[in-house]
Amino acid sequence: SDLIIDAKDLVKHYPIRGGVLRGIKGWVKALDGVSFNLYKGETLGIVGESGCGKSTLGRMLMRLEEPTSGSLLFDGVDMYAQSNSGMRHMRRDIQMVFQDPYTSLNPRKTVGDIVAEPFEIHPDAVPKGTNIRTRVKELMELVGLSPDMTNRYPHQFSGGQRQRIGIARGIALNPKVLVCDEPVSALDVSVQAQVVNLMEKLQDELGLAYVFIAHDLSVVRHISDRVGVMYLGKMVELGDEEQIYERPTHPYTQALLSAVPVPDPTKRFEREQIVLTGDVPSPANPPSGCRFHTRCWRAQERCETEEPLLIEHADGAGEHPSACHFAEPKTDVV
Ligand code: SF4
Ligand code: MG
Questions:
Q1: With a 6 A CB cut-off, is 296 part of the ligand 1 pocket?
Q2: How many CA atoms lie within 13 A of 313 on its CB side?
């Protein structure tokens, strides 16, 4: 089948410790029951404000965090049941690109050594008939960098070039999935598009699937086949590009979209701006019922007590999942 990741009910709670005895005072509910699928060769965008759990989710897909509960099948194999050696084997197929190209590359290593890092753990991943040096040069070319630059150090490169180096390292083992945690957030807007274009090119050439994490819906729009919107540890809406951007049904998605600047100034006045009031509540103490109810302009009494499930609702041209009791399409925010 085309299914590569089948994540069910992923939960991650962190203990809050304090007091003289460092006892557990409470729990941060960073991720609180998230389910989704990822298919071969597709891009799933994951979007939400900081504290929504998206980075925790990314780390759990790599098993850099152990789940509190939930399951993840990767290519049909139960990831969280793997021993260390089983996990090492699986990591060949699921690699990560980190947010900040300024801190995720070791400044004392040459970029050639950085790109070759994955081969230290997986020497057998060097393709037959070649060697690490040749493979590193190939990878540099694949990401649009001169293969003559392998002896330079990260500080000799721009932010965009450094993220290309991080991507070269991420694809070195020829993974099936690349988890990208805000890969362009630290870059200038003009450079962001170049890196996103490179990622699309690599996806076409290598058949990679991406989980592309971002805090801004506009960044993931063009690269994503589907988008999941997260709020306070929950996924609140999940749909394909058209469903999320043209027929959003969740009030939170609608608010995020209304905040995206419109390139066409004549359209600015036709569009309704939804201003969210209040801060994101603490994930240590999420609101009862619908977690969004403290900031939602559509909230009713029921929302304070009854938690909405992520289920399909009519969206005007079909249906897609949205976790709102009153989900309905709103097109004047897009
Ligand atoms: Fe708003 Fe209620 Fe829908 Fe939650 S369930 S998003 S509070 S209308
Ligand atoms: Mg694509």
A1: yes
A2: 23
Of the bound ligands, which one is closest to the alpha carbon of residue 212? 2
Cβ of 232 below 6 Å from ligand 1: no
Closest CA to 115 of 124, 102, 103, 106: 106
Answer yes or no: are the C-beta atoms of 44 and 228 closer than 8 Å.
Answer: yes
**pLDDT for position 21:** 77
pLDDT in tens, 34-55: 999 999 999 999 999 988 999 9
Nearest ligand, measured from the Cα of 41: 2
Residues 6+ positions from 137 with CB-CB distance below 8 Å:
147, 150
What token pair was written down for 115? 């790109």
Edge to edge, the sheet with strand 77-78 lists: 23-39, 3-18, 69-74, 77-78
- Residue 268, pLDDT > 70, answer no
pTM of the model: 0.94
CA distance 248 to 254: 6
Please indicate whether residue 7, judged by its CB atom, sits closer than 6 Å to ligand 1. no
255, 256, 262, 263 alpha-carbon torsion, rounded to 10° = -170
With 90 as the cut, is the pLDDT of residue 160 above it? Answer: yes
| pLDDT of 261 above 80 | no
Residue pair 70/8 in contact (Cβ under 8 Å)? The answer is yes
ipTM topping 0.90: yes
